[in-house]
Write a structure and sequence with these properties.
By secondary structure, the protein is α/β, with parallel strands linked by helices. The protein has one domain: Rossmann fold (3-Layer(aba) Sandwich). It is 33% helix and 25% strand. Strands 6-7-8-3-9-10 form a six-stranded mixed sheet, with helices on both faces. The termini are far apart.
């Protein structure tokens, strides 16, 4: 797989009122390869979302550089789709029109993207709901629409910032399967931020583990599990070993005498 994302010794400082400053991320470096699925886990406030925003060009590193396809990121990137914890759908637009909103913002012809949008609705199990309004959809269904919206303009990279954090456990597991199906069908490079270690392991080729703020990489766990993965794989010894290693690197469940 060829390199598509390079995060090179990146540190990010936030500056607040009265000259206060917070070092959110320190000396973070990693490579993302084409069509690779990377999960990032770590404690709250360790800079996971900050790293995603920097890759998207929404904020710039205080130190270090980020490259997409060998080109330095100096501002917002058109070839990146993003989905967040909140679906943030416009209530006056039906699902299909919500999905096509980025196309309109980019000044493209929505009609040309309808076939791809319809294909994505089918992949995520929402065929027949294209004309439904957000208030007619469950939280999980709204998140599926958000995923389609992030992919409809065919970006190379998909950044997912805890998209299932507000959902119940059953819906969350169902959407893990949806994301896996999307990834295997669309073959995008995905970076997925989550607090849920089993979720990170289930989805990823590799899990990047960050310590508390300032966020620094303390471990990278290569996930050697076959695909496609069923939920039953979470009961296997190999899966549980991956989870155990990551928990130990985060200091979870470790006796510190």
């Amino acid at each position: 797989m060829s390199e598509i994302i390079k995060v090179d010794n990146v540190s990010i400082t936030y500056y607040g009122k009265k000259a206060t400053k917070t070092l959110a991320v320190k000396n973070v470096s990693f490579i993302g390869k084409k069509s690779e699925f990377i999960s990032i886990v770590g404690p709250s406030g360790c800079g996971k979302s900050t790293i995603l925003k920097a890759i998207a060009g929404l904020i710039l590193p205080t130190e270090g550089k980020i490259y997409i396809n060998g080109k330095e990121v100096t501002g917002p990137q058109k070839g990146i789709g993003m989905a967040f914890q909140s679906a943030s759908l416009l209530p006056w637009r039906n699902a299909l029109k919500n999905v096509l909103l980025p196309i309109e913002i980019l000044g493209l012809d929505p009609e040309e993207y309808i076939p791809h949008a319809e294909k994505l609705f089918e992949i995520v199990g929402l065929k027949g709901f294209e004309n439904s309004f957000p208030w007619e959809l469950s939280g999980g269904m709204q998140q599926r629409v958000s995923l389609i919206r992030a992919l409809v303009f065919n970006p190379e990279i998909l950044l997912l910032d805890e998209p299932f954090g507000a959902l119940d456990a059953l819906t969350r597991e169902e959407l893990n399967l949806v994301v896996q199906r999307l990834w295997m069908t669309e073959k995008k490079t995905i970076i997925f931020v989550t607090h849920d270690i089993p979720e990170a392991v289930f989805l990823a080729d590799r899990v990047i583990v960050l310590k508390s703020r300032p966020g620094q990489i303390v471990h990278e766990e290569k996930i050697d599990l076959p695909r496609p993965r069923s939920l039953d794989i979470k009961l296997t010894e190999k899966f549980l070993e991956h989870v155990k290693v990551i928990r130990e690197k985060l200091g979870i469940g470790v006796n510190n005498k």
